[in-house]
Write a structure and sequence with these properties.
The radius of gyration is 40 Å and the shape is rod-shaped. The chain has one helix and 26 strands. A hairpin with a 2-residue loop joins strand 9 (about 115-120) and strand 10 (about 125-130). The strands form seven sheets. A six-stranded mixed sheet has the order 1-14-13-5-10-9, with no helix packed on it. It is mainly β and about 350 residues long. It has one helix spanning about 1-30, and strands at about 35-40, 40-45, 55, 55-60, 70-75, 80, 90, 110, 115-120, 125-130, 140-145, 150, 155-165, 165-175, 195-200, 215, 220-225, 230-235, 240-245, 250, 260-265, 270-280, 300-305, 315, 320-335, 350-355.
């Protein structure tokens, strides 16, 4: 009986030993926290491979380990120097149309996400600002995008080392003595561009009475130009007011080019004709500036603006190019009881434009 019990104890101890060994084997093969991987796929693209020349540099790498966001460090080989804290960006390197578009079966790399910044000097730059985790098996890219970010050493084959949070790897890049760059000259010319359209047609003031000011609906003058010094709109008229050939009389413009805004009230001391201009937006560039005294307002009891004459007056301008800038032009008249009756009061207002090239 004693022998049998010893045998059973031996069996239990063996089983316990086997389980312990099995557990150690399992635990021993488990990945350790913070384990590093080796980057086996790395690509470096220089915009200028010539010796002693400055170049922008773009780098892509295939992550070996999944890791939380962290820093990435690039150390260039002996002789290569970097500009003091070069600009770091992943713009333009990712996707099928990016710099590394030929990778990943034509799908390209994934732009390293975040607002990237660089720190360091000499041949080592540390990149920070990534905002998402690094995923194992994903190809990421970024670049040193400032002009002349890296200055190449003498012609040779050089190594660079990249450490990405939990991964590290080393690869090579070539510097050539000459012949890496070709230039294609591109020439073109931009000619002067200026268009002015006036829409709205004839402005009818209807039948005038002393009770209120008659205001036209707005005609619009739309101007576009690439004139570097901007554009100007001018207005002038035929009669310096509204002229009746039947009565050979004129409802006179308020004093033209007076230099100050003028006010017309209903049933005025003398019949008056006034022009008002308002800016009405633009598509690109800037809106028109409407100078005093044309930049008034229209109303049935009071209207403000300035008078027109055969001498052109500036009604709007810009100091830079603009596109589809609009001026709204109103004409208004007020009469008193002494204004001669006539059905043929008329005037012609001209709008012209000029560009400062």
């Amino acid at each position: 009986m004693v022998t049998k019990n010893k045998h059973r104890i031996r069996e239990k101890l063996s089983a316990i030993f086997f389980i312990a060994v099995f557990l150690v084997a399992i635990l021993g093969s488990a990945p350790k926290a913070g384990a590093t991987g080796t980057l086996t796929s790395m690509w470096l693209f220089e915009t200028n491979m010539d010796a002693t020349q400055g170049s922008m540099v773009y780098i892509a790498f295939k992550a070996a380990t999944t890791a939380a966001p962290g820093t990435t460090t690039v150390t260039f080989g002996t002789g290569t120097t970097t500009a003091a804290i070069p600009t770091v960006s992943s713009t333009g390197c990712g996707g099928a149309s990016g710099i590394f578009g030929w990778l990943n079966g034509g799908a390209g790399a994934t732009a390293l996400p975040g607002t990237l910044t660089g720190a360091g000097s000499g041949a080592t730059i540390t990149i920070s600002g990534a905002t998402t985790s690094i995923t194992s098996g994903t190809i990421y890219c970024f670049g040193f995008t400032s002009a002349g970010a890296v200055t190449n050493p003498a012609a040779n084959l050089y190594s660079y080392t990249l450490t990405d949070v939990s991964d590290s790897g080393t690869n090579t890049y070539a510097v050539l003595s000459s012949g890496a760059n070709m230039s294609i000259g591109v020439t073109t010319a931009v000619t002067q561009y200026f268009t002015l359209t006036v829409a709205g047609g004839t402005q009818s003031l209807g039948s005038l009475t002393t009770a209120s000011i008659a205001n036209s609906s707005a005609d619009t003058a739309t101007v576009s130009s690439n004139a570097i010094g901007g554009v100007s709109l001018f207005a002038y008229d035929q009669y310096t007011g509204l002229y009746s050939s039947a009565k050979t009389t004129t409802i006179n413009s308020v004093v033209p080019n007076s230099g100050s805004i003028q006010t017309v009230n209903s049933n005025p001391t003398a019949a008056s004709f006034v022009t008002t201009v308002n800016a009405n937006g633009y598509s690109q560039g800037v809106a028109l500036t409407i100078p005093a005294p044309f930049n008034g307002s229209v109303g049935s009891a009071t209207t403000t603006g300035d008078g027109l004459s055969p001498t052109p007056a500036v009604i709007g301008y810009t100091s830079v190019p603009t596109y589809l800038a609009v001026a709204k032009i109103y004409d208004s008249a007020a009469i008193n009881s002494a204004t001669p009756i006539a059905a043929d009061y008329t005037d012609t207002v001209y709008v012209v434009g000029s560009g400062a090239y």
